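Notes from hallway chat w/ T.B., transcribed later so I don't forget. T.B. wanted the structure written out for a chain they're using in a teaching module, and asked if we could keep both sequence and structure tokens in one place. Agreed to drop them here.
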Amino acid sequence: MVARLEASGDLRPGPVRETLLVLRREVLMPQSYMRRSADGENPRRWDLLDWEVPQDREELQKVLYGGASVLVQRDGEPLLGRARGSRSGASITSVSTVTGVTASLLDELDLRPRQRVLDVGTGAGVTAAVACQVCGDQGVVTLDRDRHLTQAAAARLADLGFRPEAVCGAGDEGCPARAPFDRIFVSYAVASVPPALVEQLAPGGRLLVHVTSVSPSWPALAVVERTLDGHVQAELRAVEFAHRAGHGLEQIWPTEGFRQRITAEPATWTQRSMLPPPADTDRGLWLAADHLLGGPVRDFGAENLVIGAPGCGSWLRAEPLQSENVCCTGAANISARARANRTTLSNEFSEPRTINHLTEWWHWPYGDRHRALQTKQPATLYGPAEIP
């Protein structure tokens, strides 16, 4: 797992890497849910696997050390004393975040010995375990609104030899009784940075928290720091991956029916451009668009750019037109097809949607525009041919 994280760039040499190398994840997460139902099947079916059961270990080890999310809790249940077996219905209420996201953020947090750390959103206790190993458990506080999670994490961290203070309470309020903190880490996404957490930062302290909107498509990472003289400075970075939205933050998701409608439904308005849409890596632009417009959701499973707004039912689909580049010349031995193309394009040189690249290279959308020029008929992709 650590080797994969290093290869992907999510983990660098340092104390976080050394901790993940020795961290026994099966102690923190001795049980995990595995989904057995098919997509769209209701009610959903789950199997709760247990590390103590030999027949479960192979599958569970792949989950624990594979880097993907681990499904920790279903329907807000107690974690301690659960019986292994099958479940039906309800939903997953706590997961251990994808390891790559956790590792990169812990690196960014820059943990050091003897720092005071507030871990907001205990979950399975992975972040708290790393903080205890690097900083010492006496300065670590792990906080969660679910007492079942804090109780289980405290017991399992103790099995690893760590005894941080586990507190049950609202994450956005922090832990003022133990403030200030040198490092604050929030393991779920919020709509805005909680002011109480900023207030609990010590001089020289750093706070990391993902920020999202009702759309899950374009998250950001807020990096908040308090300088040694007490001033607060912050940076909002657009990121590709983020934590799940926290309790009470409802997000919108396109249904399968809405996706199919976008694919099949003819557009009511079409615009064509020689410029491609912004790249996926232009995350700052997408982040700004999300917060300015509100409500758009990207279908990342689509072949081309597809964005929908489930709230109002509008959508956008951007896709390239098939096209052809042809080099036409006046040489005597050119083919009849090339000569006909050259004559047609030369006659229509002023046609605004046919582009001459100054070396007798022309480009036109495949078939449709060329046929319109030759037959003087409307082009189905462009509307009227605009030929006198």
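Follow-up for T.B.: Residues 256-318 form one domain. Might be a good example for the class.
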